[in-house]
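pls design
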């Protein structure tokens, strides 16, 4: 038991370092593209490379792992990620950066997938819920805290590229030093989107909408912050507030959704997002404290959408379908994520930086209308048939096997 927990701790530590580097890199790259005078729609296309690469990584990395093993694949992908981060400084052109961003998404998907397969294998059955919670909190904390590192060096120089590359290399250390044997790689077959839509239309549309909104804000948020005149340190605080709010409100809102129709909670959350997004568009950078408070509140609402949608789908799923449902909804989220940044940047090009939040309000409004309509089409799931809410973020399909709802059914 003790050795298994130590193994889980080393993997979580490695992923924590990876998430810290990845979170900083995403925000820094958006700022750097603004400094390099990339056109706003071009920035959206470059940012889209990451979710597209991530999706491809989820599909093809398992084959690589089966051919050469976990540790070799993890080491190779960490090396690819490190080299790729340094290559951005060498070749500063949109086409090259788009290709490199796709490669970073592919490598990150593989690293997360391998780490999660280790956790699935080594976490004792009686502590899987605790390990899952620690893993998710660790990821969110790493991404939130890493945003503040934007101010440690001039984004016009190579230092932040080197810092991120160092983090990508360092994530290998805890994993490479583990004495645990290589785990099996579970085969997760996601339910198709058509089948998922029949099971839970709100969950599928909610995950697509979440991808359209959250990836746009996390990827393009630094561009907005830079265009409205925030200093580099303030850009970091802006993005950190967004992530911190998402970490803070998931649990209380999720617990409320356990007590009532989750669709009504989803409707209330999306309505709140509309109000807050419009407030950010109006307030802008005029009052920094108010702006950061509104962004934190928006993040707190926005980052609950995905876990509520997944929980709602699992309420309607049969026993043993939790992993497949989660994997299918992850693909729905990824589909939305690929479209979010380009659409957001087109809106910003046409109507100015504040249009980012007008875009978010529009997508949230569309999701709210659809959810309200679905409430009239099907009754609420009885409380005794609902599975407990689990705070989570979209990572890879293998994270579903760590979900405490899986253990509860075994």
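designed seq:
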């Amino acid at each position: 038991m003790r050795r298994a927990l130590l193994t889980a701790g080393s993997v979580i530590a490695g992923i924590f370092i990876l998430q810290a580097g990845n979170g900083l890199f995403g925000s820094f790259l958006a700022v750097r593209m603004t400094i390099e005078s990339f056109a706003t729609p071009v920035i959206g296309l470059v940012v889209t490379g990451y979710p597209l690469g991530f999706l491809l990584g989820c599909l093809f990395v398992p084959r690589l792992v089966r051919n050469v093993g976990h540790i070799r694949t993890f080491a190779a992908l960490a090396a690819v990620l490190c080299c790729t981060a340094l290559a951005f400084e060498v070749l500063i052109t949109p086409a090259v950066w788009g290709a490199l961003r796709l490669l970073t998404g592919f490598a990150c998907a593989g690293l997360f997938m391998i780490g999660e397969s280790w956790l699935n294998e080594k976490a004792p059955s009686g502590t899987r819920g605790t390990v899952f919670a620690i893993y998710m909190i660790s990821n969110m904390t790493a991404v939130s805290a890493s945003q503040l590192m934007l101010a440690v060096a001039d984004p016009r120089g190579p230092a932040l590229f080197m810092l991120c590359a160092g983090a990508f290399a360092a994530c290998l250390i805890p994993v490479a030093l583990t004495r645990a044997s290589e785990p099996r790689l579970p085969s997760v077959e996601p339910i198709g989107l058509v089948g998922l839509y029949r099971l839970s239309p709100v969950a599928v549309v909610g995950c697509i909408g979440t991808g359209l909104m959250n990836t746009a804000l996390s990827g393009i948020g630094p561009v907005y912050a830079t265009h409205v005149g925030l200093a580099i340190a303030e850009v970091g605080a802006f993005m950190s507030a967004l992530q911190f709010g998402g970490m803070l409100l998931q649990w209380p809102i999720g617990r409320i959704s356990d007590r009532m129709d989750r669709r009504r909670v989803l409707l209330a959350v999306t309505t709140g997002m509309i109000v807050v997004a419009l407030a950010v568009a109006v307030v802008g950078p005029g009052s920094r404290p108010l702006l950061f408070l509104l962004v934190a509140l928006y993040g707190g609402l926005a980052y609950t959408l995905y876990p509520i949608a997944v929980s709602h789908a699992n309420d309607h799923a049969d026993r043993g379908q939790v992993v497949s449902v989660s994997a299918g909804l992850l693909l729905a989220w990824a589909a939305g994520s690929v479209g979010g940044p380009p659409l957001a940047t087109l809106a910003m090009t046409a109507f100015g930086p504040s249009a980012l939040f007008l875009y978010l309000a529009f997508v949230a409004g569309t999701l709210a209308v659809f959810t309200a309509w679905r409430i009239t089409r099907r009754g609420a799931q009885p409380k005794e048939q609902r599975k407990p809410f689990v705070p989570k973020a979209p990572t890879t399909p293998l994270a579903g096997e760590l979900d405490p709802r899986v253990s509860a059914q075994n």
